[in-house]
Amino acid sequence: MRLAPGARRYAVPPLALAVPLLFVFAPAGLACAALGCFALWFHRDPEREVPESGVLAPADGRVSVLRTEDGRVRVGVFMNVTDVHVNRAPLAGVVASVDHRPGAHRPAFSKESERNERVRITTDSYELDLIAGAFARRIHPSVEPGDTVARGERVGHISFGSRVDILLPPEYDAADVRVDVGERVTAGETVLA
C-alpha cells in the first residue's frame, strides 16, 4: 500500500524501539510495535477513482461546516483519526500561494478551531485550508506556488486528525452544494458541488 510522505518519520522510531524492548520487557515492546503499525496504517494513501465532473471532496471524513461567507460557499470536512488524511485538489487549478499560519490546536470540529494552525493553499479559483486539530501537529503541503494541479491530485496530508475547508469558486452558490452537514465524504471521489 502507498503511504503518505513522512510516514517513516512516525513509524520507524517505535518499531525500532520495539525490537530490543521485546527482549527486555515484552509488554512495552508490543506497545511500541502497535504504535509503529498504527502510524503506518494512519498514513495510508489509497488510490481513488476521480469522477468526470464536479467539485471533489478534499478530504475523507464528515462534512462539519457548510456556510456562506462574503458571498462564497465554504465546505469543511472533519477527519476522524480513522479516516485517510491525504488531501486532494477539489478542482484543477494553478497554485497561487501556500501560506502557513501558526495558531492554537483546538478540536478541529469546534468553533474555536478558527484560530488553529493552518496552511492555506490558494489557487486561481478556490482556497483550501488544511487545519490542524487538537492532536494534529504537522501539516504537510505537497504543492508550491506555480504548480498546476489536476482534480483529485494529492496536495498534502495532515498527521493525526484535523479538518480541511474549501472556499468554493465564486460561481458556485448554496443551491449547487450536493452534501449536508454530517454526511460522509471521500477525498477525490465524492462530488461536493
Automatic annotation (TrEMBL):
Lineage, opening ranks: Archaea, Methanobacteriati, Methanobacteriota, Stenosarchaea group, Halobacteria
This protein's UniProt keywords: Cell membrane, Decarboxylase, Lipid biosynthesis, Lipid metabolism, Lyase, Membrane, Phospholipid biosynthesis, Phospholipid metabolism, Pyruvate, Zymogen
The name this protein goes by in its record: Phosphatidylserine decarboxylase
Matching Pfam families: PS_Dcarbxylase
EC number: 4.1.1.65
Enzyme class (EC, first level): lyase
Keyword Nucleotide-binding: no
Keyword Membrane: yes
GO molecular function, one term: phosphatidylserine decarboxylase activity
Biological process terms in GO annotation: phospholipid biosynthetic process
Highest taxon in the source lineage: Archaea
